[in-house]
């Protein structure tokens, strides 16, 4: 019974204390709420400065004019064609000398004319002779036709014999001529001679 009484007294004391504390808090809070707030609030607004874009016009500069024109370049000189796939790595020449005719003679009229060489092809150096370092020459005789082609080639002289004969005749068959003209008509010329020299350069 005593314990119950003690508990009731303690509860009453705690309740009274809580009410007193709440009352004091309420009274103090009203004064705090009624006071105006102190201090000031500053708002910062950043204004972006206006950008001014300047446009510049650039004009290409005119290159200075040359004081003197460049000198003329020399024209390349064309060399006669020489074909030999088996002779790579070697330098050689098959020299073709001027034509001569056994029949001779000149045109009988001022409008006539002698035959003239137009195309001459270099002879192909024989591979076996090139490998052995053999040099020589061949004098070939033939007929120039009315059309300016070569017909019936034959060997007149060869040194050494039977080495360059075929190569010389094959080359002569590819020659082209302006035919001889007599009394306004083209004629054949027999006995034309041509010397082909075979020499290894270097």
From TrEMBL:
Biased composition (Basic and acidic residues): 51-65
GO molecular function: energy transducer activity
Stretches assigned to the TonB C-terminal domain: 110-202
Stretches for region Disordered: 51-84
A Pfam family reported for this protein in Swiss-Prot or TrEMBL: TonB_C
Protein family per UniProt: Belongs to the TonB family.
Organism: Pseudidiomarina marina
Taxon lineage: Bacteria, Pseudomonadati, Pseudomonadota, Gammaproteobacteria, Alteromonadales
GO cellular component labels: outer membrane-bounded periplasmic space; plasma membrane
Function: Interacts with outer membrane receptor proteins that carry out high-affinity binding and energy dependent uptake into the periplasmic space of specific substrates. It could act to transduce energy from the cytoplasmic membrane to specific energy-requiring processes in the outer membrane, resulting in the release into the periplasm of ligands bound by these outer membrane proteins.
Protein name as it appears in the record: Protein TonB
GO biological process, one term: transmembrane transport
Entries under InterPro entries matching the protein: TonB, TonB-dependent_transducer, TonB/TolA_C, TonB_C
The entry's keywords: Cell inner membrane, Cell membrane, Membrane, Protein transport, Signal-anchor, Transmembrane, Transmembrane helix, Transport
Subcellular locations according to the entry: Cell inner membrane
Membrane topology: Single-pass membrane protein
């Amino acid at each position: 019974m005593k314990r119950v009484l003690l508990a009731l007294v303690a509860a009453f004391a705690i309740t009274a204390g809580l009410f007193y504390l709440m009352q004091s808090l309420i009274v103090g809070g009203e004064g705090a709420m009624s006071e105006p707030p102190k201090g000031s609030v500053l708002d910062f607004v950043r204004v972006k400065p206006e950008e001014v874009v300047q446009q510049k016009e650039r004009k290409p500069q005119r290159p200075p004019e040359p004081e003197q024109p460049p000198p003329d370049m020399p024209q390349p000189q064309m060399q006669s064609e020489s074909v030999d796939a088996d002779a790579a790595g070697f330098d050689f020449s098959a020299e073709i000398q001027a034509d001569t005719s056994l029949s001779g003679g000149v045109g009988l009229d001022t409008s006539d004319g002698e035959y003239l060489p137009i195309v001459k092809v270099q002879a192909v150096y024989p591979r076996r002779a090139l490998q052995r370092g053999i040099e020589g020459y061949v004098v070939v005789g033939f007929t120039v036709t009315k059309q300016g082609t070569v017909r019936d080639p034959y060997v007149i002289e060869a040194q050494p014999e039977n080495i360059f004969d075929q190569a010389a005749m094959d080359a002569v068959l590819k020659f082209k001529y302006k035919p001889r003209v007599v009394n306004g008509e083209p004629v054949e010329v027999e006995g034309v001679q041509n010397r082909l020299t075979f020499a290894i350069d270097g």
